[in-house]
Amino acid sequence: MNTENQDSPFGPVIYSYTRAQAVADGVQVEVTKTAQEAGIKFPMFLTRAVFDNYVAVPEGVTGQDEAGRLWDVVWMTRFAIIRARPGVDRIPVAFYVRNDNRAARLVKLIATCSALDIDDPQPAITLMMPDED
Q1: CA 43 → CA 6, 29, 33, 114, distances in Å?
Q2: Predicted pLDDT at 131
Q3: Ordered mean pLDDT values, 10 residues apiece, the chain (133 residues)
Q4: Domain limits at 53?
Q5: Is 93 in contact with 127 (CB distance < 8 Å)?
Q6: Is residue 5 part of a domain?
Q7: Nearest-angstrom CA–CA distance, 115 and 123
Q8: Residues whose CB is less than 8 angstroms from the CB of residue 6 and which lie 6 or more positions away in sequence, other chains included
Q9: If we measure between CA atoms, which residue out of 27, 71, 70 comes closest to residue 49?
Q10: How far, CA to CA in Å, does 132 sit from each of 68, 128, 129?
Q11: How many CA atoms lie within 13 A of 77 on its CB side?
């Protein structure tokens, strides 16, 4: 891809990091297939922190599996999208998760809608920790 846009008032791009690179590097995790099964039409990604903290099952936790936890995260994101005001691009997503063998605790994340990648303007959803934007 040519990033040498001399007509830009900001000059040429010095560095870019694409979503494709983030997925390849493991910084983001694509969950589009599960999202589509839940009724989300756009491609969907989780940041590594969201995946590691709320999808991956912590060692020693019983009665949990990764597929079920992923479904819960995606389903609650869908529910938050449905309840969101039209036109917003940042949506709070809240759900309960059990990361130990005690009671589940409330987790609050942020879903954003932006371009799929630097060269692909189709919309995509990214679910992230509140401090990751």
Answers
A1: 32, 11, 8, 10
A2: 94
A3: 61 88 96 97 98 96 95 97 92 96 95 94 96 89
A4: 19-128
A5: yes
A6: no
A7: 5
A8: 12
A9: 27
A10: 24, 6, 5
A11: 35
100 located within any domain = yes
Alpha carbons 1 and 60: distance in angstroms, whole number: 46
Tally of domains within the chain: 1
Distances (CA, A) of 27 to 7, 11, 17, 101, 116: 32, 28, 11, 28, 15
Distance, first Cα to last Cα, the chain:
25
Residues paired with 96 in a beta bridge: 106
Q: Is residue 12 part of a domain?
A: no
The DSSP bridge partners found for residue 28 are 47
Residue 121 lies in a domain: yes
Place of tokens 């389903």: 75
Sheet strand arrangement including 90-97: 28-30, 44-47, 120-128, 105-117, 90-97
In total, the chain counts a number of residues equal to 133
Show Cβ contacts of residue 11 under 8 Å, excluding neighbours closer than 6 positions.
none
